[in-house]
Amino acid sequence: MFSFLVDCGPVYAIWLLESCRQGKSGCEIFLPIVSGTLFQLLGIGQVAPLYFAIEYIRTPLSSLKGENRSIKTDVLKSLLPAMLAGHYLPLFANFFASTVESRQSINAWWQLFPLVVPLVQLPLRFLAKPQSNVEAKKKTTSHRKANLLWTRCTYGSLAAISGLSFIYARWSAPQGTSLAKIFLPGLFEHTQPITSFAQGIARFLKYDDIFSLGAGFVWLGLRFRELQQSGVPVPWWKSVCALLGTTVTIGPGAALALGWGWREEVLAEPPAVEGK
């Protein structure tokens, strides 16, 4: 359960980052906020596929030209602290709290993280914006490198947190429990009766994880196909093998974050950014 909930972090962070590209209006931020609020009510497995489909259809790569494809630097600088304060710290505190009462209180706060993260990010963006505006006016290679550095810090940190949580979940599982049994529902598990609340939650989160991160991988694959169609060489078999290997080794949340980061690395290259 712990690893599944931690993996909500990269998914939601990617939603926020995608809404804050230079070529998008400030109103775009409301789509991930509303979607995030809905997935806390309905389950991310029901909302994420719809969100990724809408995002892909509404924002093809061809609609963003040149520098408009880059993410605003103030967003990159402020997202990770906001995610730590609004999502990760309450989640970790919830699982390691000493009493049931404190867990309930912390969990109630964590449920609001799709709203809390953007709210915490607002003043941080304001503090980061003056320097970001100066950097943006330069429009130089050094600015691109600085922006890429913040991008790497963001997706690298998200991947590290999810990866370590995945490894912890594997390490803390009962001896003899297979990786598939921990993270994947059985073929006919949905037909079996639920005998306890914990079992029901575990089964729900397994399906939630598959549908949400599965949709994320499909979306990522389509985004890489866009790059390929625009003339950027993307070796498909290497991409698939890398994502599969990363998923098995450090978990799907980390794999999604690293896959998204890889795409950003490609977009940051001058031929990709200034191309079609």
The radius of gyration is 19 Å
Low-confidence stretches: 272-276
Strand pairing plus helix content: what structural class? mainly alpha
The main sheet comes to: none
Approximate strand percentage:
under 5%
- Separate helix tally: 13
How many angstroms separate the termini?
A: 43 Å
Helix content: over 70%
Q: Quick one: how many beta strands?
A: 0
Rough shape? globular
Succession of helices and strands? HHHHHHHHHHHHH
Mean pLDDT: 83
Topology (SSEs and partners):
Elements: H1 2-6, H2 8-18, H3 30-42, H4 44-58, H5 73-96, H6 100-110, H7 113-138, H8 141-172, H9 179-183, H10 197-229, H11 236-250, H12 252-268, H13 270-273
Structural write-up:
This protein is mostly helical and 276 residues long. Helix content is 76%, strand content 0%. The protein is built from 13 helices and no strands. Helix 3 packs antiparallel against helix 4, helix 3 packs antiparallel against helix 7 and helix 4 packs parallel to helix 10. The longest helix has 33 residues. The chain is globular. The chain starts with a helix and ends with a helix. The C terminus is likely disordered. It comes from Penicillium frequentans. This is Paxilline synthesis protein A.
